[in-house]
Amino acid sequence: MDFRFTPEEEAFRKEVLQFIKEEMPPDYGEGGESQFDLEHFEFTKRMARKLGAKKWLAMNWPEEHGGLGVSPIKHMIFKEESAYHRIPGTDMGVGGISWVGPTLLLLGTEEQKKKHLPPLAAGEKWWCTMYSEPEAGSDMAALQCRGVAHGDEYIVNGQKVWTSGGHIADWGWLLVRTDPTVANKHHGISLLLVDMKTPGVTIRPLINLAGHHYFNEIFFDDAHISKANLIGEENRGWYHTMIALSFERSGGVAMAAGARRSLDDLVEFAKKTTINGKPLAKDPFIRHQLAELAIEIEAIRMVGYRIIWKQTKGEIPGVEAPIVKTLASETIQKMAKVATQMMGLYGQLSLGSKQAFLNGRAADMYLSANNIIVAMGTNEIQRNIIAQRGLGLPRT
What we know:
With 396 residues, the chain is of the alpha+beta class. It is 46% helix and 15% strand. β9 and β10 (278-279) form a beta hairpin. α3 runs parallel beside α7 (252-272), α7 packs parallel to α9 and α9 (320-342) runs antiparallel to α11 (379-390).
């Protein structure tokens, strides 16, 4: 594998960096802004529309669906730089660009593609994903939210929980049980597209440990959803969702770039901070911790590059997807611990505290890092997938 970028790709990276210099406030993210907190969401939407106008959001999609038809590598460069520089709105909610669009390209009807892909690529419509339920998290096939076929509609009743970005979403990606009589619980599940303004859909906020409104719980009370919104085949939703999850878990390049930005901030903090007259950066324990993080982030980036390389060959991400998700989530959690340890008692100060180092982002990172260990499937589940599909080990 040649790890060098072509002159054209390097020129595009410079173009992205110039856009960031012109459009992004230099201090954005320094205060721990969350893109879906309502006080920041207007800026998030403006950035998405600007990126959509340049056709960068989904540049690797076909031109007829709003993209530029460029290689996944060029799109990767955009995702890498946007993650490092904390550009908000690049996924059009949670999953719009990362897995809703790619899965629609594979499984959607022509009508679904025409209706949903151009507004996504243009930065106009926002998405959320509704998988988890109060009794169906890691064991997602235990879901009970029902979709009962009635004429040309499904009547949906039930609850979803931990729906990231549900409060800002125009559309939702919903997994429901359409056949409760099957012996195998992985069967009888269907995947639907849902207009979040549908009567019978209620959204309630869930505030996370760091105080951000990122999650929501969604209630369905006799919500009527057209069968035209069925993705793929009825009762085959589990298998369609596995494709979507492969796309979801494969964002290693972006996760590595975001982690590298946080690490760079910590390194700069260590250089500028002294304890008893001695620079923090000269402490051998801290140097070792930061070096370990740098190595782990580079490993995540390399696996992420491998995923993109496979996509250039037309392949759906395989076992690399759970590998990169596990590596990235645990490295981010470790970084949060290192950050708070470096700052001592000051590491406990929250966003906006006058005496907090890095504006309190260490405590914010620490409180938020546990989410990613569970999101997209717990890391225990990911290790099972790696063992079975990657190493060929038997189920126990």
